[in-house]
Design goal:
about 70 residues; mainly alpha; F1FO ATP Synthase; elongated
């Protein structure tokens, strides 16, 4: 029972950071493209890299939550 609560907290709290990070990243990328549409090529690669690294944190939280459910 405690493992399920811990897993829920791990996944829930672990998703807050990436969710906020992705929201800010998309907001700033759209703002930059609105100001300078010709810079889309220069913005794309760092934007995708940043999103991938941010999503990795959420995936780590999911893995920890699954470990807490099935191991603990």
């Amino acid at each position: 029972m405690e493992g399920n609560i811990a897993a829920g907290l791990a996944i829930g709290l672990g998703a807050i950071g990436p969710g906020i990070g992705l929201g800010i990243a998309v907001s700033k990328a759209m703002e930059a493209l609105g100001r300078n549409p010709d810079a889309s090529g220069a913005i794309f690669v760092p934007y995708i890299l940043g999103i991938a690294l941010t999503e990795a944190i959420g995936i780590y939280a999911l893995v920890i939550g699954l470990l807490l459910i099935f191991v603990a």
